[in-house]
Amino acid sequence: MRPGTTISVPVTDYDLSATLTSGQVFNWEQNDGAWTGVIHGRWVELRVADGAIVARTATSQRNWSWLTHFLQTDVNLAEIVASFPATDAHLRAAARACHGLRLLRQSPWECLAAFILSATKQIVQIRQIVRLLSERYGTPVATGDAEERRFAFPSAEQIAALTEVELRACKMGFRAPYLLQAARQVAVGKMDLAGLERLSLAEARAQLLRLDGVGRKIADCVLLFAYDFPEAFPVDVWVRRVLLKYYFRNRQVSDARLQQFIQRHFGRNAGYCQQYLFHHVRMMKGRVEGRLIAKT
DNA sequence: GACCAGGAAACGA
DNA sequence: TCGTTTCATGGT
Questions:
Q1: What is the nearest nucleotide to A282, using C1' and CA?
Q2: Nearest CA-CA partner of A156 in A198, A123, A111, A120
Q3: How far is the CA of A173 from the C1' of B8 (A)?
Q4: Which CB contacts under 8 angstroms, 24+ apart, belong to A241-245?
Q5: CA A273, CA A88: separation in Å to the nearest integer?
Q6: Which nucleotides in chain B lie less than 7 Å from some protein C-beta?
Q7: Which residues in A178-195 are b (16+ Cβ under 10 Å) and which e?
Q8: Mean pLDDT over residues A39-65, rounded?
Q9: What was the pLDDT predicted at A187?
Q10: DSSP labels for A232-261?
Q11: Which residue, counting CA atoms, is nearest to the C1' of nucleotide C3?
């Protein structure tokens, strides 16, 4: 028996694969039925069991709150989905098709950095940049498999010590100065990420928007995926397209009108609505492309 | 080889 | 306050 610890976390309405592949996190790998990742500097392997998620770590754990907090296993998903607008057939269909899709609770710096890197990048590319950064500049962590080498995502201090040239070598292009500036501000305390949790949604968003390279969309991703702001509703190209299609008959709408509609229509768990719409439309596209490929 | 990617900032009208 | 351009790089 290897060192380390195993725990079985009981869950209901939890689709781990959908959650880990829905564009919230970029550092999880799937290998023969198990997911491995690094949470707060700890390597962990997750397997889906009957009514539970079974977690294995490399080192012994006496307290697993870091894991349940990340996975948000205490969240009552049925209650959240029940809060969705009752008359919205499109949203209801997405929620049915993606049953068990969850929002995670990531560490703010890692989430902020990843989404600064996400600007006009495909998810596979974001994953590649995050992996390069971690391998080159992150702290190695003990893993539960002898052949697996993993690294924590570099801290703000670690990235702040780098140069723009080193960052550009990780294939992030014009995003390099944005990441470097954000890392420096966090490292010296000019940007207090921990303090954002005590603010209102609008106040916390305003703080994030002070950062160069962080606009409304990236700010809302961080507020939704790393904080307790389930009303945050990031609008990217996918979500904008699907909103125009479902609710505006494909007519052009200004950003201001779109935001007004979102706030009025989706309610207190708008961010969950957004995640279901985003994941569902991406899954649908994959299916259509699969058929086209199968034909030829 | 054109087109697009979980955008944002700078610019010109 | 608008729309347009630019930024870097890789996938499809």
A1: B6
A2: A111
A3: 14
A4: A241/A281, A242/A277, A242/A278, A242/A281, A243/A277
A5: 11
A6: 4-9
A7: bbbbbbbbbbeeebebee
A8: 97
A9: 98
A10: -----HHHHHHHHHHHSTT----HHHHHHH
A11: A254
Q: Cα separation of A23 and A282, whole Å?
A: 10
Residue in the block written with tokens 């507020």: A223
* C-alpha to C-alpha distance for A206 and A114, rounded to whole angstroms: 19
Model's pTM, two decimal places?
Answer: 0.96
Q: How far is the CA of A201 from the C1' of C1 (A)?
A: 25
Cα–Cα distance for residue pair A163/A159, rounded to 1 Å: 8
Distance in angstroms, CA of A205 to C1' of B3? Answer: 33
pLDDT tens string A86-131: 999 999 999 999 999 999 999 999 999 999 999 999 999 999 999 9
Report which residue type is found at A278: F
For nucleotide B7, give the residue with the nearest CA to its C1'. A119
